[in-house]
Amino acid sequence: MNQCKIKFLWVLFIAATGVLFLTGAMTITASAGETFACAKDSDVNKMIAPEASLEDFSCFVKRWDSADTLHFQVAVKNVSSEDQRFKVNIFLENGKAVGGLLPRKTKKGLVKPGAIAKFSYPVKGVTSVSGKIDLIIKTMSK
User: Fold this and answer.
1) What is the full DSSP assignment across 49-115?
2) Whole-model pTM?
3) Tens digit of each residue's pLDDT (9 = 90 or more) over 74-87
């Protein structure tokens, strides 16, 4: 009888470990970097330079700086006939703002005509979007 109790406890332990593992794995894959629409189109005020075309503007939440953080995924296509560098600014209604240059570094050159440059901008301390968003894409002078 003592041997049956030991076997039962091992089976119970293995089953509990498996359930905990599967639950944790499902939680990680469900929230790890899945993109979603940042806001309705009517809530996004877009000011885009004529040399640029917005190819992607989506959001995802992932760990950054040891906390879950909202990231804006921005992809810009160069529709002009010259190489370009773009400046991206994203302003949230709650006062937060992020942005940067595309490409970030010019060591490999600028964005060629017809090419797409993309980058993810993390917004520290924010996990979801509420309210209106201002998206500004400008070209940089050479």
Assistant:
1) -TTEEEEEEEEEEEEETTEEEEEEEEEEEE-SSS-B-EEEEEEETTS-EEEEEESS--TT--BPTT-
2) 0.72
3) 999 999 999 999 99
